[in-house]
Amino acid sequence: MSNTPGFPQDPNEPRWGGQPQQPYQQPPGGYPGGPGGPAGYGPPQKKRRKWPWVVLVVAILFAGGCVAIIAGVSNEASKTVKVKYQVTGDARSVTVTYTTWNDGDTSTSQDTVTQLPWTKEMDAKGFSRGGSLVVTIGAAGGSVECSVTVDDGQPKTATASGAFASAACTDF
After folding, report:
1. 46 three-class SS
2. How many Å apart are CA 25 and CA 139, to the nearest integer?
3. Full residue range of the structural domain in which residue 122 is found
4. Residue 59 lies in a domain
5. pLDDT digits (tens, 9 = 90+) for 124-139
6. 28, 52, 62, 158: which has the fewest C-beta neighbours closer than 10 Å?
7. Is residue 146 part of a domain?
8. Tally of CB atoms within 10 A around 86
9. Neighbour-count burial for 126-162, b at 16+ CB within 10 Å, e otherwise
10. Is residue 141 part of a domain?
């Protein structure tokens, strides 16, 4: 029995309404804020940072791209190509000027031609290849076509007709 009326001291002693007090039990799903609690409660989950991995992947791709570019430039710098210059037509007096890159240096040559066709083949080496072929018709007139082919590729061509006209094949 209790000393104070209406307040039982013994948990098994009947309380208001005459029922014994039940021991406190964990609610279904656990305590809010504890393990087994409802979603959104409890200690925060430790998030894994993704950005270090993203930075690592980008750095690896960048390094690989740099290596590929350097390897390609190195290969191009040591590659030798064959350049074939051609001039055809019915003009009787033409001036042929041709420029070629070779090992980083440019060389320009000029020929005066009185009978066509005219052909010249050269080897070009180095990263900066290419040049120009310019054909200028003399005072007698006529027509010409210039053509430049690099390593049996697609030729660059140009035509001109009339006195002092010029045909220029460039960007090869």
Report:
1. coil
2. 115
3. 80-170
4. no
5. 776 555 678 999 999 9
6. 28
7. yes
8. 19
9. beebbbbbbbbbbeeebbbbbbbbbeeeeebebebee
10. yes
Among 142, 132, 148, 133, which residue's Cα sits nearest to residue 93? Answer: 142
CATH of the domain at 133: 2.60.40
* Structural domain includes residue 116: yes
> What length does the chain have?
172
Amino acid at site 152: D
Q: Which of 71-75, 100-104, 120-124, 147-151 has the lowest mean pLDDT?
A: 71-75
What mean pLDDT is reported for the chain? 76
Distances (CA, A) of 137 to 5, 7, 146, 149, 171: 131, 126, 12, 21, 21
Measure Cα distances from 100 to 80, 126, 144, 152 in Å: 13, 11, 21, 17
The four Cα atoms 26, 28, 31, 34 give a dihedral, to 10 degrees, of 110
Give the pLDDT confidence of 93-131 residue by residue, as tens digits. Answer: 999 998 877 666 778 889 999 899 999 988 877 655 567
First-last CA distance in the chain: 112
CA gyration radius, the chain = 45
